[in-house]
């Protein structure tokens, strides 16, 4: 088995000279990672992060890159530690056994699939509202609208994983331009509202409590764990023994782009609105774009906001579909059934279409609770499982003793406890 694995590695390995040249495929993955992470949650981040005050926001900004990069690098390394072509569900079974593999696969699916349902609802709401309020036409019945929208996205899915990633990377460009446009547009409207809290240094206990509750918001706003497994598998296929090095380069550039773009947008929004206005937006359950459109009564923002939201939701839907379908296929295979690959793909797509369509049509309010319950599972898989594997799995022993491991573990525990506390508080 080892000889076979070594021959596979040699076949797919590239020379160091090839590794130094950045390819178009690397750029596509970088933008695909960005597209999965930066979605609808970004439009609520200025409200949630800004409510804590100026100094907690500054600290969160400084922590954003290491929190996201080290965690996703750890999960990528975990998938890379498995056999050639193994996704995250296979690697868990390989390292921890059949029972643990089945449990993690189940948790992985139920952590990601509810988010897919939430995006299905949000997409239907966004397009319906846009047709009614901006285009001034009556939207079709909700059942028809949701079916057409979800079917359209699944048509992209049916073209294959590489097409999904390319579609997401293309959708990233208008999203980046829109975020930049809005952030720059707001600069003349900056005021000292949030800065009024800068002169008051909060007590250490109050500061720690604010950060404790705010860290999960930052963590999950930059989360792109659903696509990490597919990313790692492709990196191993492309670069073989050099996959860890190249994937780390792609992740670092993707996260740098995320942090710079999103934090510029966040600070621009927060410097424009007062703490009272941010609290009002949260109470109205509006995204920052919708609140700014109402605040300025600006037709441009009012028209652009739903279009930006549509792009954000659509590309995040595609990225989360990869993870959700991967989890569902893993669950089917772990029952002992071995359907043909194409048939399994069709079964998965049909299941996703029917469930997403039903939920989007019903528009249940319980989805927020499901997302809150999925939060600790995502944090456990993204932060804690790879760090546990580094300590226990021989294939990951070379990563032991790094300070980043302690940091990732601490952030994971903070995120889990804060989400649980917020849910029951």
UniProtKB/TrEMBL annotation:
The chain crosses the membrane at residues 29-47, 53-75, 96-122, 142-160, 172-190, 210-233, 254-273, 303-323, 344-360, 366-385, 406-424. GO terms for molecular function: amino acid transmembrane transporter activity; symporter activity. It catalyses: L-serine(in) + H(+)(in) = L-serine(out) + H(+)(out). It is a multi-pass membrane protein. It is found in: Cell inner membrane. GO terms for cellular component: plasma membrane. The keyword Transport applies. Its main location: membrane. Keywords: Amino-acid transport, Cell inner membrane, Cell membrane, Membrane, Symport, Transmembrane, Transmembrane helix, Transport. The keyword Cell inner membrane applies. Pfam families: Trp_Tyr_perm. PANTHER family: SERINE TRANSPORTER, SERINE TRANSPORTER SDAC. This is HAAAP family serine/threonine permease. It comes from Pseudomonas extremorientalis. The lineage of its organism: Bacteria, Pseudomonadati, Pseudomonadota, Gammaproteobacteria, Pseudomonadales.
């Amino acid at each position: 088995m080892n000889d076979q694995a070594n021959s596979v590695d040699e076949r797919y390995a590239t020379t160091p000279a090839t590794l130094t040249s950045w390819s178009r495929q690397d750029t596509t993955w970088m933008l695909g990672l960005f597209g999965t992470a930066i979605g609808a949650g970004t439009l609520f981040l200025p409200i949630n992060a800004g409510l804590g005050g100026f100094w907690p926001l500054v600290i969160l900004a400084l922590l954003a890159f290491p929190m996201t990069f080290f965690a996703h690098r750890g999960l990528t390394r975990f998938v890379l530690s498995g056999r050639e072509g193994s996704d995250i569900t296979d690697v868990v079974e390989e390292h921890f056994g059949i029972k643990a593999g089945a449990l993690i696969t189940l948790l992985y699916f139920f952590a990601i699939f509810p988010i897919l349902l939430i995006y299905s609802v949000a997409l239907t709401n966004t397009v319906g509202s846009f047709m009614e309020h901006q285009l001034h036409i009556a939207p079709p019945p909700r059942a028809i609208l949701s079916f057409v929208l979800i079917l359209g996205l699944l048509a992209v899915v049916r073209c294959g994983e590489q097409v999904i990633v390319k579609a997401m990377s293309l959708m990233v460009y208008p999203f980046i331009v829109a975020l930049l446009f809005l952030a720059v547009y707001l600069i003349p409207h900056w005021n000292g509202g949030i800065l009024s809290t800068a002169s008051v240094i909060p007590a250490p206990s109050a500061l720690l409590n604010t950060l404790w509750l705010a860290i999960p918001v930052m963590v999950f706003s930059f989360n792109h764990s659903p696509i990490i497994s597919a990313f790692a598998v492709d990196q191993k296929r492309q670069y073989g023994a050099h996959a860890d090095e190249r994937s780390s380069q792609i992740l670092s550039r993707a996260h740098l782009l995320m942090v710079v773009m999103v934090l510029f947008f966040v600070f621009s929004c927060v410097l424009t609105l007062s703490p009272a206005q941010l609290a009002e937006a949260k109470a109205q359950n509006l995204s920052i774009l919708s609140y700014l459109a109402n605040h300025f009564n600006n037709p441009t923002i009012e028209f652009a906001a739903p279009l930006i939201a549509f792009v954000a939701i659509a590309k995040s839907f595609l990225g989360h579909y990869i993870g959700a379908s991967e989890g569902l296929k893993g669950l089917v295979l772990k029952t002992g059934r071995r359907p043909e690959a194409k048939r399994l793909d069709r079964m998965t797509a049909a299941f996703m279409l029917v469930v997403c369509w039903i939920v989007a049509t019903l528009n249940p309010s319980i989805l927020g609770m499901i997302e809150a319950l999925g939060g600790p599972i995502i944090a456990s898989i993204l932060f804690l499982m790879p760090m546990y594997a580094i300590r226990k799995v021989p294939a990951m022993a070379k990563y032991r003793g790094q300070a980043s491991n302690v940091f990732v573990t601490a952030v994971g525990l903070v995120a889990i406890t804060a989400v649980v506390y917020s849910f029951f508080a």
